[in-house]
Specification:
The protein is mainly alpha-helical. About 70% of the residues lie in helices and about 0% in strands. It contains 17 helices and no strands. Helix 11 runs antiparallel to helix 12. It is elongated.
């Protein structure tokens, strides 16, 4: 018997379990759900993705009616895996949320967070905005149901994706939350690197003052390489030194960070820089400065321009007084 025919037989058996009669007042949801699950597997082997997905979703509905929340969540997760090429990102997003909710109702928070993370990776390229939401939800579920450490991994993925999307305000909130997770779990080793990330995001926003405030707030958690990089970078922006800022952004430490932050450093606008004051231009063939007849050549060399002008003014005034007397 081919797998298609076998799948159809399982579907017929499932329909029989759902029928009621004089001697059977209640449908047998559990047995029907098992039959639909087996039919879904047969369709999958036959590469009939559409029917496989439908059978998994029917099984999930029946398991949920029978309050078998774990099996219902697992059936939806299987439907996601089977139809990831067929379903739209929005549909996969909704299926992931439903599956995670059912896992949590069963008390399996880790499995609920894991399915959100799994689907986020599937739709990340086509719908990064939805993937961010799934990573954030996974962090929420994991921090409540499981551990802060696992939640940190999920929120870290959300932070990097937000930076890639250039949604800097949301990225800052996500990075601050990531730091909070690390501090709550007592793992401060990663806070310094995240501080560098926040400074880079603030500079990408064009706010050097906020970048310096971030360093003052979390700089005490930085290691020596992180402190050196940040101090060199912030000093360059404070002094508006383009060359120094360019060298700091291209430092080996920043290049060794996650790809999203390393790429961000290459797009950060450099400070404007302070142009040197231009020297006074000398006009060619200009007439020599007027020198009073009452001053000798030796005195000219030792007399400042202001003193010469004062002497000229006195000579002119004296000439005017003589003309008045005449």
């Amino acid at each position: 018997m081919s797998k298609i025919l076998e799948a159809q037989e399982h579907c017929k058996a499932a329909e029989k379990y759902l029928k009621t009669g004089l001697l059977k007042w209640k449908p047998d949801y559990d047995s029907a759900a098992d039959e639909f699950s087996q039919a879904a597997q047969c369709y999958r082997i036959s590469r009939d993705v559409k029917n496989s997905k439908e059978c998994h979703m029917k099984a999930a509905e029946l398991y949920e009616k029978n309050r078998s929340f774990f099996h219902a969540a697992k059936a939806i997760e299987n439907a996601v895996i089977v139809s990831k090429e067929l379903s739209s990102p929005e549909e996969l997003y909704n299926m992931a949320c439903n599956s995670s909710s059912l896992y949590q109702q069963h008390g399996s928070g880790d499995a609920g967070a894991n399915v959100l993370d799994k689907v986020a990776k599937i739709i990340e390229e086509k719908a990064p905005e939805l993937a961010v939401k799934l990573f954030q939800q996974a962090a929420d579920v994991s921090s409540v149901e499981s551990s802060q450490h696992q939640g940190t991994e999920y929120i870290s993925k959300a932070s990097r994706l937000l930076v890639k999307l250039e949604r800097f305000d949301e990225a800052l909130d996500s990075l601050r939350r990531e730091i909070g997770f690390h501090l709550e779990s007592g793992y401060t080793g990663a806070v310094g690197r995240l501080t560098v990330a926040i400074v880079l995001v603030q500079l990408a926003r064009g706010d050097a003052v906020a970048a310096e405030k971030a360093y003052k707030e979390w700089g005490n958690n930085c290691e020596v390489p992180e402190m050196q990089t940040l101090e060199m970078l912030l000093q360059a922006y404070d002094e508006e030194d383009r060359d120094a800022a360019k060298r700091a952004l291209a430092s080996p430490f920043i290049r060794s960070m996650d790809v999203e932050y390393a790429r961000l450093a290459g797009t950060i606008p450099l400070p404007e820089g302070i142009d040197p004051v231009p020297k006074a231009a000398v006009r060619e063939n200009a007439a020599p400065s007027y020198v009073s007849v009452n001053i000798s050549e030796g005195e000219v060399a030792n007399t400042s321009r202001a003193e010469i002008e004062e002497i000229d003014f006195a000579d002119n005034r004296k000439t005017e007084e003589e003309d008045d007397l005449c």
